[in-house]
Amino acid sequence: MVGIIDYGVGNLFSLKSSLAYIGEEAVVTNDPAVLQKCDHIILPGVGAFGDAAEKLRQSGMAEVVLKEAAAGKPLLGICLGMQLLFEKSYEYGEYAGLELIPGVVRPIAPMISEGLKVPHIGWNGLHFPKEKEKSPIFADLAENDCVYFVHSFAAVDCADFVTATAEYGAELTAAVARGNVYGCQFHPEKSGEVGLKILKAFCNL
Amino acid sequence: MITKRIIPCLDVKDGRVVKGINFQGLNDVSSPIELGKYYSDNGADELVFYDITASAEGRALFTDILKKVAETIFIPLTVGGGINTLEDFDRVLKCGADKVSVNSGAIKNPDLIAQAAQKYGDQCVVLSVDVKRVDGKFTVFAKGGRENTGMDAIEWIKKCVALGAGEVVVNSIDTDGVKKGFDLEMLEAVCDAVSVPVIASGGAGSMEDFVTLFKELPKVDAGLAASIFHFSEVNIKELKERLAKENIPMRL
């Protein structure tokens, strides 16, 4: 059973449907007891970092995520859910994250070439660092497989944990992993066949 | 590198796809669910559903079908038609839409864009605008192109982007249905005016029209069309392969 954390941020319909489509039972919940019984946890998120981080804490879900991650349960943060895994974000201020992965989240505008649009929205190819072994959630992917991005902020200072990048006037962090904690900046649930392969591989961990 | 998007658009009335459709291998060509899935499986980068229903009953049916479509396709889904209030946003987003397209609703109440962007984020709000030349000036038309608002299109688009529209679909009434290519002059004017993604609509008649669009105007992010895809005049997979051969970045 996959537990999708519901902390009042974003639309979880597509994520739930895509898991159902690949034959994974999933539950959308904010009940710590239910999450404890799940063998995989997904932390979704859309919106602004500060607001989401506060909701995550207020709902008591931050504590649950940290506890389950420490217990070794596979955890996948998606989009803003991935950004929340880091130490902090500079989105309209400075906000603390869950500190599960070293690094910070900064606006992409100063990182990319002039003239490129922000948000970085659309399908972009994934590049896997050559010097590293491919992350198990990307086992069935090929270099340059496209996934769907929508974001204006990206993780930096996390080179040791980067498992994929995407070229957008700079090599932006597209995915990270540290032990049993995984993060995707893009939306696997909106990335067609490629995205479903990633979700399947995560559920098989 | 970010790829250019190819987007088929389906007009749905009372739960059925309208406009003649000419497909092989589909049992029910008027089913939005079957067609949505077909496009999703055959290379579409995104789907747009326009609800052209007039009655409340038909709208409830649309909502029902939208849910079923969203359950079976895993690419971004934009929904438009009859979006006048935040409740309308809420209704379609709850059914699994990723973005909501506003047109006449924003003309009646531009603040709708600001409210929706605040609540759901800029990336969720797509401005759709029907533009026609009147005395040589790009002018906004409302109500499906029937009503001249007298507004300058470039000023209107700039205003909506400032209010929070995250993407703009530019539909040229002058080229729509003519099938002689996209309205490059109009699109260039829009691209120069705003820094959000611009989606070209109206006028595609062949693969070459897409090649010309992306070669002449590299700033355009996506091409949208309806009938040429519905009638299988242009196959999306073949179109994307052709564009990739021209070194236009594509998701294949």
Automatic annotation (TrEMBL), chain A:
<keyword id="KW-0963">Cytoplasm</keyword>
<feature type="active site">
    <location>
        <position position="189"/>
    </location>
</feature>
<comment type="pathway">
    <text>Amino-acid biosynthesis; L-histidine biosynthesis; L-histidine from 5-phospho-alpha-D-ribose 1-diphosphate: step 5/9.</text>
</comment>
<dbReference type="GO" id="GO:0000107">
    <property type="term" value="F:imidazoleglycerol-phosphate synthase activity"/>
</dbReference>
<keyword id="KW-0378">Hydrolase</keyword>
<keyword id="KW-0028">Amino-acid biosynthesis</keyword>
<dbReference type="Pfam" id="PF00117">
    <property type="entry name" value="GATase"/>
</dbReference>
<comment type="function">
    <text>IGPS catalyzes the conversion of PRFAR and glutamine to IGP, AICAR and glutamate. The HisH subunit catalyzes the hydrolysis of glutamine to glutamate and ammonia as part of the synthesis of IGP and AICAR. The resulting ammonia molecule is channeled to the active site of HisF.</text>
</comment>
<protein>
    <recommendedName>
        <fullName>Imidazole glycerol phosphate synthase subunit HisH</fullName>
        <ecNumber>4.3.2.10</ecNumber>
        <ecNumber>3.5.1.2</ecNumber>
    </recommendedName>
</protein>
<keyword id="KW-0368">Histidine biosynthesis</keyword>
<dbReference type="InterPro" id="IPR010139">
    <property type="entry name" value="Imidazole-glycPsynth_HisH"/>
</dbReference>
<feature type="active site" description="Nucleophile">
    <location>
        <position position="79"/>
    </location>
</feature>
<feature type="domain" description="Glutamine amidotransferase">
    <location>
        <begin position="4"/>
        <end position="201"/>
    </location>
</feature>
<keyword id="KW-0456">Lyase</keyword>
<comment type="subunit">
    <text>Heterodimer of HisH and HisF.</text>
</comment>
<dbReference type="GO" id="GO:0016829">
    <property type="term" value="F:lyase activity"/>
</dbReference>
<keyword id="KW-0315">Glutamine amidotransferase</keyword>
<feature type="active site">
    <location>
        <position position="187"/>
    </location>
</feature>
<keyword id="KW-0808">Transferase</keyword>
<dbReference type="InterPro" id="IPR029062">
    <property type="entry name" value="Class_I_gatase-like"/>
</dbReference>
<dbReference type="GO" id="GO:0000105">
    <property type="term" value="P:L-histidine biosynthetic process"/>
</dbReference>
<dbReference type="GO" id="GO:0004359">
    <property type="term" value="F:glutaminase activity"/>
</dbReference>
From TrEMBL, chain B:
<comment type="pathway">
    <text>Amino-acid biosynthesis; L-histidine biosynthesis; L-histidine from 5-phospho-alpha-D-ribose 1-diphosphate: step 5/9.</text>
</comment>
<keyword id="KW-0368">Histidine biosynthesis</keyword>
<dbReference type="InterPro" id="IPR006062">
    <property type="entry name" value="His_biosynth"/>
</dbReference>
<dbReference type="GO" id="GO:0005737">
    <property type="term" value="C:cytoplasm"/>
</dbReference>
<dbReference type="InterPro" id="IPR011060">
    <property type="entry name" value="RibuloseP-bd_barrel"/>
</dbReference>
<keyword id="KW-0456">Lyase</keyword>
<dbReference type="Pfam" id="PF00977">
    <property type="entry name" value="His_biosynth"/>
</dbReference>
<feature type="active site">
    <location>
        <position position="11"/>
    </location>
</feature>
<dbReference type="InterPro" id="IPR013785">
    <property type="entry name" value="Aldolase_TIM"/>
</dbReference>
<comment type="subunit">
    <text>Heterodimer of HisH and HisF.</text>
</comment>
<comment type="function">
    <text>IGPS catalyzes the conversion of PRFAR and glutamine to IGP, AICAR and glutamate. The HisF subunit catalyzes the cyclization activity that produces IGP and AICAR from PRFAR using the ammonia provided by the HisH subunit.</text>
</comment>
<protein>
    <recommendedName>
        <fullName>Imidazole glycerol phosphate synthase subunit HisF</fullName>
        <ecNumber>4.3.2.10</ecNumber>
    </recommendedName>
</protein>
<keyword id="KW-0963">Cytoplasm</keyword>
<keyword id="KW-0028">Amino-acid biosynthesis</keyword>
<dbReference type="GO" id="GO:0000105">
    <property type="term" value="P:L-histidine biosynthetic process"/>
</dbReference>
<dbReference type="GO" id="GO:0016829">
    <property type="term" value="F:lyase activity"/>
</dbReference>
<dbReference type="InterPro" id="IPR050064">
    <property type="entry name" value="IGPS_HisA/HisF"/>
</dbReference>
<dbReference type="InterPro" id="IPR004651">
    <property type="entry name" value="HisF"/>
</dbReference>
<dbReference type="GO" id="GO:0000107">
    <property type="term" value="F:imidazoleglycerol-phosphate synthase activity"/>
</dbReference>
<feature type="active site">
    <location>
        <position position="130"/>
    </location>
</feature>
<comment type="similarity">
    <text>Belongs to the HisA/HisF family.</text>
</comment>
